[in-house]
Write a structure and sequence with these properties.
Blueprint: E1 2-10, E2 15-20, E3 31-35, E4 45-48, E5 51-53, E6 56-62, H1 66-72, E7 79-86, E8 97-102, H2 107-115, E9 119-125, H3 132-138, E10 141-146, E11 161-165, H4 168-181, E12 186-190, E13 206-209, E14 212-215, E15 222-224, H5 225-229
Parallel strand pairs: 8-9, 8-11, 9-10, 11-12
Antiparallel strand pairs: 1-2, 1-7, 2-6, 3-4, 3-7, 5-6, 12-15, 13-14
This protein binds flavin-adenine dinucleotide (FAD) and FE2/S2 (inorganic) cluster (FES).
């Protein structure tokens, strides 16, 4: 599907928020394979849905290399190729929920906060925070940590469910904290992987999860934490 870029604004030195006219609905935690070029680079790049509403879909992305660098140069009116939404996002969870994100992992938590009632959001930034007001408008409470560990700021015993996205070490630390504190919260984590097809056809993103090999793009990217990190 080809869409049009409506806006593409820098939020910090290497984070951008891009709004497109893609009108498909999406589940929080799902992603699109994005492409802003012809032949090279060969592969499209997976980026989570930041928001999907009112006939628009937006993406929050960090520039780390060639593909995301090309996204950053897109201007309003430019064409963008999208395949998706792909994958299994965050499940519907009852009760008090914490959404915990670090770095670019905060991206899928905005739509999650808008769709889940009673959510507290924990946002970890390496440098100066951004978009905090947007998250505050969507959530019960927003806790921000800049330069430290967002996992230090959450008491997991206060929650029935915890949805996390970010560096794997952050999500593992969070899950271990749940175990240490005896928290009953059900924890779901969104995994990252290099992807080729993004639709379950090539096995590039396959890794052991829950006693078998799972494709991050099709079986995930969201999995129960105990299947990823063990009990
Ligand atoms: C399901 C899923 C959802 C994602 N959602 C988002 C999102 O919402 N926002 C976002 O910013 N990113 C997201 N990512 C990560 C994003 O896909 C990669 O950052 C992107 O593909 C890198 O492409 P590139 O061409 O810019 O970098 P490349 O040119 O391919 O790589 C350049 C350098 O960056 C490193 N690199 C590649 N991927 C990552 C990464 N994930 N983190 C850190 N360094 C990396 C490479 O090792 C290399 O050194 C998601 C990934 C997955 C699997
Ligand atoms: S990227 Fe091809 S199967 Fe997941």
């Amino acid at each position: 599907m080809e869409c049009t870029v409506l806006s593409n604004k820098p939020l910090s030195e290497n984070f951008y928020l891009m709004e497109t006219d893609c009108s498909r609905d999406a589940q929080a935690g799902q992603f699109y394979m994005l492409r802003a070029w012809g032949v090279y680079p060969v592969l499209s790049r997976p980026i989570s849905v930041f928001d999907a509403d009112a006939g628009k879909t937006s993406f929050l992305y960090r520039t780390v290399g060639q593909g995301t660098g090309m996204f950053a140069r897109l201007k309003p009116g430019d064409a963008l190729g999208l395949v998706g939404p792909q994958g299994r996002g965050f499940p519907g969870v009852p009760g008090k929920t914490a959404l915990v994100g670090g770095g670019a992992g905060i991206a899928p938590l905005y739509l999650a906060a808008r769709r889940i009632k009673n959510a507290d959001v924990f946002l970890g930034f390496r440098d100066a925070p951004f978009l905090v007001q947007a998250y505050e408008a969507a959530a019960d409470r927003v806790v921000v940590n800049s330069g430290g560990f967002i996992t230090d700021d959450i008491d997991p015993t206060q929650y029935d469910a915890i949805l996390a996205c970010g560096p794997e070490i952050m999500m593992k630390t969070l899950y271990e904290k749940c175990k240490k504190t005896g928290a009953a919260a059900k924890v779901y984590v969104s995994l990252e992987s290099r992807m080729a097809c993004g639709v379950g056809a090539c096995f590039v993103c396959s890794r052991p999860v829950g006693g078998g090999n799972k494709k991050i793009c099709k079986d995930g990217p969201v999995f129960p934490a105990e299947e990823v990190f063990g009990l």
